[in-house]
Amino acid sequence: MQNALEALVEMWDGLIGDILDKRVTRWVFPFATTFFIFIVISNLMDLVPGVGSIGIKNANGEFTPIFRPPTTDANLTVAMAGIFLVMSIFWAVRYNGVWGLVKHIFGVKMETTKWTFPLFFLLFLFIGAMELLSVAFARPVALAMRLYGNVFAGESILDMIFHSKSLLFSLLLSSGMYFYETFVCLVQAFVFAMLVVAFVGTLCTHTEEEHGH
Questions:
Q1: Could you tell me the residue range of the domain that residue 37 belongs to?
Q2: Predicted TM-score (pTM) of this structure
Q3: pLDDT band at 27 (very low <50, low <70, confident <90, very high)
Q4: Total structural domains in the chain?
Q5: What is the DSSP track for 28-77?
């Protein structure tokens, strides 16, 4: 078991190292790994019998579960995306410097002449504004909503199966869904952690390195 875990950790560390600079890998590795472990445990709570399917109905017939998987609450996934946003900006400033980060986002990233430079400067200024919108809004929303939507959908499907009037249908379908949801829970945790690494990588890469690649 120890050898298997060490192999997985080394594989994960190597995968992050292929994307990020060595210095950035040391910062991001524990952060992304913690996210992965936390999300896997939170997602798998969806498969514990009674979680999401046992609850109370009010006078209007609305069902409120007593226990819910943590990641089916958008408040949690949005909070995790917010933490990622703060840390990614912190690492980007730490790696590039404030002025270096501004140049990384808005700078002209191609060779130009003195005559074409103003045109390309305006073009990359527009591209930088789109990149800034992506960093500050689109990426955190994508992280939060992808995780929340997939886990919440799985919980809703399992809930519908468990409340089916046909016991045989419920048992057969729930057995298949349990295997599928286990796979989805693991994949979604990996995707979230991998996107964190990839998004940080776009901010912590020098322009000179980009030209080299």
A1: 2-212
A2: 0.82
A3: very high
A4: 1
A5: HHHHHHHHHHHHHHHHHGGGSTTTTTSEEE-TT--EEESS--GGGSHHHH
